[in-house]
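#struct-pred

JT: dropping the chains for the assembly here, can someone run the whole complex?
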Amino acid sequence: MLGDLGGFFHLIEKILGTTGSILYLIFALVVVKQVNTMSKNVKDKFNNILITVSYLHLLGAIILMFLALTIL
Amino acid sequence: MTRSIDLDKVAPDDVIEVKKEETENEKAEIQTNTSKTKTLKEKIYEIVGHTKHSLSSVLVNPDVFSFEERDTQEEILLVARPHWFTNLSWILISILMLLAPGFIKFIPIINSIPMKYIGLGTLVWYLLTFAIIFENFLSWYFDVFIITDKRVIDIDFNNLLDKKFSEAKLSMIQDVTSRVSGLGQTMFNYGTIHIQTAAEVSYITFEKVPHPEKIIKILQFLREKKEIDKGGRN
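RK: done, full complex below.
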């Protein structure tokens, strides 16, 4: 009985973790898109650095999703 | 009727004297415009001073800066972003968020949580912290007020999904007012400038810009110059 309950909670944890990491990945993609749009509108010295940082953030979100799928 | 040039002797690729004069006139006009812009830039330097660094809230006559709606002949004279002090609240919150995982070991219940979960939680925490820092920085960095030799422009990115562009020609400016209120604004000399225009957008607001009095002075100078130019042409 307790084992079933533990399995159920583990499933919930996995679903929530995976959904959260996917949502975060979508957010990271939106950030990349938006930084590109902003950089196209306003061109300044640090635009390339900001675009690179947004891609690094996207990489972080991909790693998070991968970890959520494997660890949870 | 005598001709100044015997057209029968002119080859199609010969340089015609009249054309040469026109080109010289054009050159002279370009030179006059360049010297006008140079004087304009010198005056702006005189009022605001030189830019201290690239991340400064006020960029005077920037070489690298540009924007999508810029005309080919348009000269950017001044770019202003909100004063750095307006970023203080999110910078402090971010520092606290960055330091927070260091104190987590003092919570007794943490020891009973498996290490892999703590690692994942820490990654989530730092990613969220980074997202907050990055979004706030982007909102500040891309929120610009531009003064060119032709118009004033306000480009606002309120959040990541909302862009607002408003502009008014210098000749359309009717009234300029500024407001410095509160302790922070008085101490660090920044405030809001309201520009009333005769254009479709009746108001353009430059929010929390440093040295509002100097920006008003620049606008006043540019408006006067426009009127003098207009009078000269008439």
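JT: nice. Chain B has a mean pLDDT of 82. The interface with chain A takes residues 54-55, 62, 64-68, 116-117, 119-120, 123-124, 127, 130-131, 134-135, 138, 141-142, 144, 155, 157, 160-161, 163 of chain B (CB under 8 Å).
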